Amino acid sequence: MIVGVQTTVYLKPSTLKEKKLPLRWWNIITLIYLHLFSLKAIVALLLTRGGLGFWMQLTTFLRSSVATISADIYVLKRNKLHHLIQKMSHSFNRFTPEEKRSFKNRILRGSIILWFFMAMNFMVLVTNVYNMGMSRFLDVHFFSLRIRFVSPVTQYVVGGILLLVRQAIMWGTLSFMIMLYVFLCDNIKCSFRSFSMCMIDVFQNDESLNERYVEKLQRYYVYITNLVTQMDDIFSPAVFFWSSAFIFSVCIDITFDISLYSRMDMISFLASVQKLLLIFLAFLSIGISASLAIEEAHRCVPCFYELTASFDSSKSSSLSQAVQFFAMRLGTTRVSLTGWKFFDLSRGYMLTVFGILGSYIILVFQLNPEAMTAIITGQ
């Protein structure tokens, strides 16, 4: 059958040799900047005397550390990541034209939404720098070194370049890693869906069904589950910090947005809201993409039992043994994407987190009735 012939294409290890990628100069510059920014955030966090400054520096440290950890994982595991992308690109060639088109459209929509929020963040950042003053902005980002420039024009040129570099490195690194994770999760989901279609084609054709095609189908399933395992080994620390930083940042930002709403100007309030929306979008895209991929994997087991419900075991003993072994493989293989082995990225976990955050928001509103009244009345 054509299905069996196509499956063998993805099971030859000689065609997927792991390539050693060199460490590029822009990787080194990115790592140096992110680690210096995180170190600066740690020092500022330790030097604060509590109060509002401490919590604001804590949110800055959380966001910078998430980008730093993402860049570290990309650089340290770039060879394994490149090998994983190679294997997934081979599985992508197996998709039908409709699946390829749907896959590309989802990735394109997600990229457009994410870059839209990044553009909003950049506009708000430019507004804050304008209100702060370029000299103050340069003083903060050059680690409090008093640098005398020749003219104000030079200050704005250097400040504009620094602003673009900061936006590209900080949010660009984080957005790239998040979109890459979503892209790989969506590829896994489509791979399991393609596997289900292969099972339907194999078991519904009774005339040419034999143990050889069942064994090839089993090897294809093992191939996809190995992709999930490799992806989990690469990204599980990053996903843990992404989720942890999301929870802490949202709690802190919501507390101060509600408590200080009456004393905040509109630009500061919008800046805080769009940061919350960007973090929320990142967490939502990670959680939904991972949970949908694993749900698609779990659908393979009932699909197999439905297809083999009327299977005639007396037709061939070797075929019956192959089907039984395949059933055991499907029933005992645990497919999951985790965050540093502490939790499964599933809908249950996401609903739990959203429930906790919702309860926390209600609690903050109850403790600040004046802020709740001001937000409702728009004052």
UniProtKB/TrEMBL annotation:
The keyword Coiled coil does not apply. Its main location: membrane. It is a multi-pass membrane protein. The chain crosses the membrane at residues 25-48, 112-133, 153-184, 234-256, 276-294, 348-367. Pfam families: 7tm_7. InterPro entries: 7TM_chemorcpt. GO terms for biological process: detection of stimulus; sensory perception of taste. Keywords: Cell membrane, Membrane, Receptor, Transmembrane, Transmembrane helix. It comes from the Eukaryota. One of its GO terms (cellular component) is plasma membrane. The keyword Membrane applies. It is found in: Cell membrane. GO terms for molecular function: signaling receptor activity. This is Gustatory receptor. The lineage of its organism: Eukaryota, Metazoa, Ecdysozoa, Arthropoda, Chelicerata. The gene is AVEN_5302_1.
